[in-house]
């Protein structure tokens, strides 16, 4: 602690000693919080960051995916609103024979996690054995299994401590936290989608850039090739925010008929995955390959196989009306004529959560049918009376949701579409 406080570099042995001792309970919280605060102010060198990441990886179980052929490229998003990319990317790159062996949790948020969304498909389940999981991925390239094992306990403990000691917002601590979880779950290579804007953890582009570069350096320093995309989350991604609604949006996107921003983001992230999986030499070449499997139906066919393999009713792909349907559809009309100038992503996400699309606490039940469909996005013209958003609800009175939507969508004389991809880090 004193050494870090004074701005000196910690050795690998010192970092391991701390993480092992803290995980075991031999080092008390007050010492750990002093170290977190010292790191917050003094930062960490590249080698300290790599050591901290690997010490946290080794603090618990790690997933062995060596039984799966090929390079396992994992994608991680720092989180946003209505982010349907995982549902699209797994079958999309799967159609190019790139394995996705995803372990996923449920967690809290505006909408459910990947597993919750997929459970909008009747019969789909993630309770499969490890053997079955491996067998499916080897044969068909894509499967999702529920989280098991005790991954990165040091990170869980540290994160909880940081939360109450004002030390969450530290680039070396965030970067090692995220990277340790990806590495412990078996990734050979990693693609990161670092969001920036109102709906993101990193509110400014500068912070997002710093975090992306920090994570890419850690990955490359510990032998996991890593690339990153910095993408806009000032407004929600795509049109759909809600579980069944996002499954539908994923299907449209796999057909090449999805929202422009979601499509662009999956092609950008997907290209990095294809290059890291060594299926293409350049991002441009990778993109052409992805566009091809979208156009020729292979990506969509892969999605059907994926659903079927895990008990899901794959007929929803051709019959979306078989997805859970909300009882009420309520339009939210624009009050004035103009251009959509701003849409506060996280608040719109909360509007979806009020309907029951996501969990505020672990005990909350998700309603898979409900959510929001944006009818306009930032930069689009709108006439008074035209719908801005359609609310999909299972309750008739949605005055609270309507109020939140009006509070967080601004119509003005002018507005410009935000840049979606701020930069790529390779
Ligand atoms: N998300 C994480 O997983 N870890 C952090 O430290 C911050 C955000
Ligand atoms: Ca969406």
From TrEMBL:
Broad class of enzyme this protein falls into: transferase
UniProt EC number: 2.4.2.2
Domain Pyrimidine nucleoside phosphorylase C-terminal: 339-412
One Pfam assignment: Glycos_transf_3
Keyword field: Glycosyltransferase, Metal-binding, Potassium, Transferase
GO cellular component assignments: cytosol
Catalytic activity: thymidine + phosphate = 2-deoxy-alpha-D-ribose 1-phosphate + thymine; 2'-deoxyuridine + phosphate = 2-deoxy-alpha-D-ribose 1-phosphate + uracil; uridine + phosphate = alpha-D-ribose 1-phosphate + uracil
UniProt GO MF annotations: 1,4-alpha-oligoglucan phosphorylase activity; deoxyuridine phosphorylase activity; metal ion binding; thymidine phosphorylase activity; uridine phosphorylase activity
InterPro entries according to UniProt: Glycosyl_Trfase_fam3, Glycosyl_Trfase_fam3_N_dom, Glycosyl_Trfase_fam3_N_dom_sf, Nuc_phospho_transferase, PYNP-like_C_sf, PYNP_C, Pyrmidine_PPas_bac/euk, Pyrmidine_PPase_CS
SMART domains noted in UniProt: PYNP_C
Cofactor requirements of the protein: K(+)
Subunit composition and interactions: Homodimer.
Function: Catalyzes phosphorolysis of the pyrimidine nucleosides uridine, thymidine and 2'-deoxyuridine with the formation of the corresponding pyrimidine base and ribose-1-phosphate.
Assigned protein family: Belongs to the thymidine/pyrimidine-nucleoside phosphorylase family.
Protein name: Pyrimidine-nucleoside phosphorylase
Species of the source: Brochothrix campestris FSL F6-1037
The organism's taxonomic lineage, starting at the top: Bacteria, Bacillati, Bacillota, Bacilli, Bacillales
């Amino acid at each position: 602690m004193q050494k870090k406080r004074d701005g000196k570099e910690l050795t690998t042995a010192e970092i391991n000693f701390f993480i092992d001792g803290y995980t075991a309970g031999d080092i008390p919280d007050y010492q750990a919080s002093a170290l977190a605060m010292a790191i917050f102010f003094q930062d960490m060198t590249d080698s300290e960051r790599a050591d901290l990441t690997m010490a946290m990886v080794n603090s618990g179980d790690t997933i062995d995916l060596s039984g799966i052929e090929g390079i396992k490229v994992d994608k991680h998003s720092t989180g946003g609103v209505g982010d349907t990319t995982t549902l699209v990317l797994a079958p999309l790159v799967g159609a190019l024979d790139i394995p996705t062996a995803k372990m996923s949790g449920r967690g809290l948020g505006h909408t459910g996690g990947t597993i919750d969304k997929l459970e909008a498909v009747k019969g789909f389940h993630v309770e499969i054995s490890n053997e079955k999981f491996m067998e499916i991925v080897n044969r068909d390239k894509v499967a999702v299994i529920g989280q098991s094992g005790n991954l990165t306990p040091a990170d869980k403990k540290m994160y909880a401590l940081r939360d109450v000691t004002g030390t969450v917002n530290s680039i070396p601590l965030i970067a090692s936290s995220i990277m340790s979880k990806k590495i412990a779950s078996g990734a050979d290579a990693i693609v990161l989608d670092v969001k920036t804007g109102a709906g993101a953890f990193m509110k400014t582009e500068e912070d997002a850039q710093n975090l992306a570069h920090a994570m890419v350096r850690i990955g490359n320093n510990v032998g996991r090739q890593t690339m990153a995309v910095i993408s806009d989350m000032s407004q929600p991604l795509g049109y759909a925010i809600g579980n069944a609604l996002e499954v539908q949006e994923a299907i449209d996107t796999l057909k090449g008929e999805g929202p422009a921003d979601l499509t662009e983001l999956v092609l950008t992230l997907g290209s990095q995955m294809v290059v890291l999986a060594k299926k293409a030499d350049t991002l441009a070449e990778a993109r052409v390959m992805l566009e091809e499997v979208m156009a020729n139906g292979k990506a969509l066919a892969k999605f059907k196989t994926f659903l079927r393999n895990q008990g899901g009713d794959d007929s929803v792909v051709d019959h979306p009306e078989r997805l859970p349907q909300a009882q009420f559809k309520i339009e939210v009309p624009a009050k004035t004529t103009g251009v959509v100038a701003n849409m506060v992503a996280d608040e719109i996400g909360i509007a979806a959560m009020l309907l029951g699309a996501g969990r505020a606490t672990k005990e909350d039940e998700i309603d898979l049918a409900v959510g929001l469909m944006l009818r306009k996005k930032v930069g689009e013209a709108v006439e008074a009376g035209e719908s801005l958003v359609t609310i999909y609800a299972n309750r008739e009175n949605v005055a609270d949701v309507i109020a939140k939507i009006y509070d967080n969508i601004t119509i003005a004389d002018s507005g410009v579409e935000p840049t979606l991809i701020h930069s790529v880090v390779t």
